[in-house]
Amino acid sequence: MPRLFLALIALITAAVARPPNIIVILVDDLGYGDLACYGAKDMRTPRLDRLMQAGTRFDQFYANCTVCTPTRASLMTGRYPDLVGAPGVIRQDAPKSWGYFRPSGPTLPELLKTGGYHTALIGKWHLGYDSPNLPNDRGFDHFHGFLGDMMNDYYTHLRGGVNWMRLNKETITAEGHATEVFTRWSIDYLKERSKQPEKPFFLYLAYNAPHFPIQPPVEWEDKVLAREQGIDPARARNVAFVEHTDHEIGKVLDALEELKLSKDTLVIFTSDNGGSIPHAQRNLPLRGGKQDHWEGGIRVPTCVVWPDRIPAGKRSATPGMTMDLLPTLCEIAEILVEHEIDGQSLAPVWLKGEAGDPDRTMIWVRREGGHHQGRAYYAIRQGKWKLLQNTPMEPMQLVDLEADPFEENPKPAEGQIASKLHNKLMSHIQKAGAVPWQK
User: Fold this and answer.
1) Residue 14 pLDDT greater than 50, yes or no
2) Residue 431: helix, strand or coil by DSSP?
3) How distant is the alpha carbon of residue 267 from its chain centre?
4) For residue 285, cis peptide bond before it (omega within 30 degrees of 0)
């Protein structure tokens, strides 16, 4: 009897000590002002509104770049994207590709595997099309998704006539709207993991939506047109697209509840960059959008939810970046990060309500072709001061984000503060210069 009692105590202790399951939901091009809870009066996003309320919402959380690939590279490595070879978009057409993913240490899924996690990516990868830069090469036990960047059609799932849908490394054909397909595959994965409750899992769920082409199912667009009288048709399509994505994310959250996984699961929701203004997406009240270093291009809707561990209904002004997720999640999972990274752990902010570092330095880079001529452009923020440019051809501008939070009156980049930020940025660029971004 004592032996049985001790075994029971050991079992209970192990259950308490078990790290949480982790789900990172990354949407694509969601504008800061394109959720109802962020002020979009024409939107109905009940599931994401409820998720924001169920945990802590971060009002100054930034994507690591104003476009796709670099932010995803930072999520995987905890580093600035140009320090891992990804300052721009990795594309299937080499002359138009501006990065080659080069992790400088173990990736997030590789680290979590050392802590006993089963790791999965469902959805968009966008960090390479060949080994060694396929998801299964970079730490994911299970990959069910899309290797490419954007889809030309959410029903055919092709990009430039190529099918990039994969199950691990096998080319597959999927049927249905991509958002619904990724939701279905995620629920299948959760059902499978629920059969092994003793082993935590990491699910990186990366939707292509609401990235253009703005392509909601017809019935969702019809519903918005009927409800929002006089709405611009392009805006109606975007509203419907976001609402459809909200509905599909809700299905994943429902599955967590039904499988009795939600209490032991940490959910992070964020976006890879701001919304695309030419496609009727909105980042209000922030200035600018996707491709800009104005706040609307890089500040993204973000929340973290972990029942009974992270306060519900709270809002935080602590600055954060996508690259912070690696050290944060590793600290929560009690996994040591022993190599050089750039991200900061936000675990004390999430779990203990600490203030974090309001004066931290944050840097953004994007390299692109076309009218950018293959050059990079930058932004840097320290505390309330931000130095930025939105193309490599324009001079830097200086903004005081406390006095001018919507960047309506930027100043010339002159004086002691601008000089200090210039010098910090130059040091970063020198360091990044040692890392090639071509294969």
Assistant:
1) no
2) helix
3) 12
4) yes
Q: Are residues 377 and 301 in the same domain?
A: no
Residue 250: C-alpha distances to residues 47, 200, 256, 347, 437 (Å): 5, 22, 10, 26, 38
Kindly tell me if the per-residue pLDDT of 308 is higher than 70: yes
Q: Is the same domain home to 80 and 132?
A: yes
- Tell me the C-alpha distance between 182 and 145, whole Å: 7
Determine the pLDDT at residue 11: 41
Q: Which DSSP state fits 395?
A: P
Q: DSSP string covering 187-218, please? A: HHHHHHHTT-TTS-EEEEEE--TTSSS----H
Angle at 255 between CA 253 and CA 259, to 5 degrees: 125
Asked whether residue 303 falls in the same domain as residue 378, the answer is no
As a 3-state breakdown, the chain gives helix, strand, coil percent values, each rounded to 5, of 35, 20, 45
Whether residue 6 lies inside any domain: the answer is: no
User: How far is 97 from 247, CA to CA, in rounded Å?
Assistant: 34
| 247 and 383 housed in the same domain | no
- What's the pLDDT tens digit per position in 333-353? 999 999 999 999 999 999 999
| Judgement on whether residues 215 and 126 belong to the same structural domain of the protein | yes
What is the tally of structural domains in the chain?
Answer: 2
Do 396 and 416 have their domain in common?
Answer: yes
Q: Where is the domain boundary, 303, 333, 357?
A: 357
Structure tokens at 281: 């997406």
**What is the token pair recorded at 211?**
């990235």
Give the CA radius of gyration of the chain: 21
pLDDT band for position 15 (cuts 50, 70, 90): very low
Q: Choosing from 37, 65, 118, 126, which is the catalytic residue? A: 126
pTM value > 0.85? yes
pLDDT digits (tens, 9 = 90+) for 399-436: 999 999 999 999 999 999 999 999 999 999 999 999 99
The verdict on whether omega for the bond into residue 210 sits within 30 degrees of 0, i.e. cis, is yes
- Residue 76 near residue 103 (C-beta atoms within 8 A): yes
Whole-number pLDDT of residue 80: 98
On whether both 203 and 330 belong to a single domain, the answer is yes
Quick check: bond before 213 cis, omega within 30? yes
Range of 278's domain? 18-357
Asked if 68 is an active-site residue, the reply is yes
Asked, for residue 208, whether it belongs to a domain, the answer is yes
Same domain, 161 and 43: yes
Contacts for 219 with CB less than 8 Å, ≥ 6 apart = none
Q: Which of 65, 68, 303, 330 is catalytic?
A: 68
